[in-house]
Amino acid sequence: MILYPAIDLKDGQAVRLVHGDMDQSTVFNDDPAAQARAFVEAGCEWLHLVDLNGAFAGTPVNAAPVEAILKSCPVPAQLGGGIRDMATIEGWLDKGLARVILGTVAVENPDLVREAARAYPGKVAVGIDARNGKVATKGWAEETDVMVTDLAKSFEDAGVSAIIYTDIMRDGAMGGPNIDTTAQLARAVSIPVIASGGVSSLQDLTQLKDTGVIAGAISGRALYDGAIDLNAALTALKG
């Protein structure tokens, strides 16, 4: 199982939110590229980047720090937030991004997801953010009537590389991930599922791994706070 250290970008800084609330942000690093390099030096094999301002604006806002990370880090990175048209997808992939994460458009324009996945095999993931089993969009600000599993299954034949499933009520709260629901989703689809939201201890990571069906896990606040030792986590997940 791959561990993806998260760098959430707000106003050019690396932050973490609680429950996706932009008013509840904690700044962890003024230099996101330096933070990314620290994760890479500790041994991580991927980076998970989120343009928080972009998710609300519907267009990239934190392009400068993302580009700085891409230029200075040799490991692949995936990015979500504000990526809602083919031109933006192409632009990011041309700049060296390994994978784009499409969230809001997966609900509002699923044909774009399919088109992008065909055009860029292995480089398009779907981000499914949920509150009480229902998908939320536009930076989690809008709740839909779409059920998580239904949305995931609709992309079974699309060629997407992964589904990143976030339980919004667990995110940033350090209360542990929703392991059962994430595992159920992973068993319901053939697309690899990456867990996000609430991953706050080494035990959380090992429990996710022990399901045998979850391909990866994203953690942010726990790595910044020291609740998860990155070296220990990477060792445990390789064992």
Q: Which band does the percent of strand residues land in?
A: 25-35%
| Secondary-structure element order, N to C | EEEHEHHEHEHHEEEHEHEHEHH
Count of alpha and pi helical runs: 11
Tell me the quaternary state: single chain
Q: So what's the overall shape?
A: globular
Radius of gyration: 16 Å
C-alpha termini separation: 10 Å
Secondary-structure content class: alpha/beta
* Main β-sheet description: 8 strands, parallel, barrel
List unreliable stretches of 5+ residues: none
The overall average pLDDT, rounded, is: 93
Give the beta-strand count. 12
As a percent range, the share of helical residues equals: 25-40%
Taking strands numbered 1, 2, ... along the chain, how are they ordered across the largest sheet? Answer: 1-4-5-6-7-10-11-12
Describe the overall structure.
The radius of gyration is 16 Å and the shape is globular. The N and C termini lie close together (10 Å). Strands 1-4-5-6-7-10-11-12 form an eight-stranded parallel barrel, surrounded by seven helices. Helix 1 (32-41) packs parallel to helix 3 and helix 9 (202-210) packs parallel to helix 11. Helix 4 links the parallel strand 5 and strand 6. The protein has eleven helices and twelve strands. The mean pLDDT is 93. The protein is an alpha/beta fold and 239 residues long.
Task: Summarize this structure as a short list of keywords or feature phrases.
37% helix; 29% strand; alpha/beta; 8-stranded parallel β-barrel; 239 residues; single chain
Topology overview:
Layout: E1 2-10, E2 13-18, E3 21-29, H1 32-41, E4 47-51, H2 52-57, H3 63-72, E5 77-80, H4 86-94, E6 99-102, H5 104-108, H6 110-119, E7 124-131, E8 134-137, E9 142-147, H7 148-153, E10 162-167, H8 179-188, E11 193-196, H9 202-210, E12 216-219, H10 221-225, H11 230-238
Parallel strand pairs: 1-4, 1-12, 4-5, 5-6, 6-7, 7-10, 10-11, 11-12
Antiparallel strand pairs: 1-2, 2-3, 7-8, 8-9
Helix pairs in contact: 1-3, 9-11
